[in-house]
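One thing: can you check what follows?
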Amino acid sequence: MVAKESSISMKSLERLVSDKASKLGNSFPCQICVVGFLCGICLTSLFLAALTSLGTFGLTAFSFSSVFPPCNSTSQVTSKLQKMFCFDMGAHIDRTADENDDDDQVKLLVSAWDNLLLNNEDYFKKQGINKSDVPNAPHLENCKERTGVRERLDTPIANQTFPSWINGGDEENYPLTRRVQREIWNHQHPQDCANKSLKFLVADWETLPGFGIGAQIAGMTGLLAIAINENRVLVANYYNRADHDGCKECRKRALEVMKKKEAWESGLVTGKQNYSSKEIWSGRIPKLWGHPWSYMKPTTEINGTLISSHRKMDRRWWRAQAVRYLMRFQTEYTCGLMNAARHSAFGKEAAEIVLSTGDWRNKKKEVRSEIEEEVWSNHKPWVPRPMLSVHVRMGDKACEMRVAALEEYMHLADRIRDRFPELNRIWLSTEMKEVVERSKDYAHWRFYYTEVARQVGNTSMAEYEGSLGREMSTNYPLVNFLMASEADFFVGALGSTWCFLIDGMRNTGGKVMSGYLSVNKDRFW
């Protein structure tokens, strides 16, 4: 059963998105950003690097962002957005225990959150509800407000101390994470961008059909290493996965310098063509910070053994730092995707929690106090916890690593649960249909997963992504990636680049001490 209980006008939503998209080209953040990867990558601008901010693409206008209608709604929903966020992005939950629990109050509150997003005055008049009285949705972010905060945090003044995008204490992250993040940021944001001696590495993201998102990000981490080693500012140019109607980028400023022949001839500007594949994928790791990987605490278990060292400790540490920097802030677009996913998965549970304090229609909502504005507004959106993320990689990956059946992953999940018996929820991500079907055999777990067409058999990843289309094949993995990065625990396959990068995000996001249970090891260890 798909967990969605709302009803909104998709035509209104399309108009909202269209209005936002039309304003994008003239927006300040867009003008100063060379490239904004969906998750907030904005590496630098050739002339305005010191002011680099988030690439933003708005889906929302007010407090409750990107809430989409239920797949079983009676509304006439035929738009592309409904297809993307309902049938394909809606998280599925095994709700056999409460399948018939369609509480009217819960449905009303979820519906109110939906319509508040669209400022649907008619809905509130019909229901006799004042918009101002609708309680906050704990699982949703105000994407417009949060994006503005993140833009302010991504400035030289905000980064004079330590980077705001790192969570947890130093002992909960890889060694030197805060220092490294700040110094990468300073490297990528030179104080004087008009300095004629400033050197650049301008690179497109990998675009070959066989490259998944994980490989594309991994390749960019290698280019960032080269840029730091050669004292160049890395400028990311064309990103094919952002080349769709939902996401447009501004590169005008960068192109002005890139088109100058003498800049290339003098070595002031270099590109991927100046470096071999070996240099990009397995080149020198920056040694500016010594060898912090030599004293990383062992927290990864493979085949029952805690791994204390391996041949690629340096690369594991560097990729973690690089991917954290590249994906340091969510854009407004990504925030909207995450809101949609959380609402589909957790909206009903969130409404039940709010209603447990009493009937909200009998309460007057007070004006937001200073502590709400300045302190509580920084809290992350609610998700049910503890949550375990499990990423099952199979399919054509068998040519690169030992693939494991769902049973092996679930054996590791049960081991975690033995130690933490309160754990009973799994966010499951996989490209394989059979894995989702087999998950129903584990009735003692509650599974959440995105509703998207999945692979049957050993179809190549390139063919599979092609069948989904560029937008969907980017958006739904991105949601899974961020959910996995924020989950309390993770079970995956380190032989998969995707799982390797998730591991990096977690180890620079305050999750080191959660540990990592893997069904296999990286093939280069």
Confidence is low (pLDDT under 50) at residues 1-90, 94-102, 246-254. The chain has 19 helices and eleven strands. The longest helix spans residues 332-355.
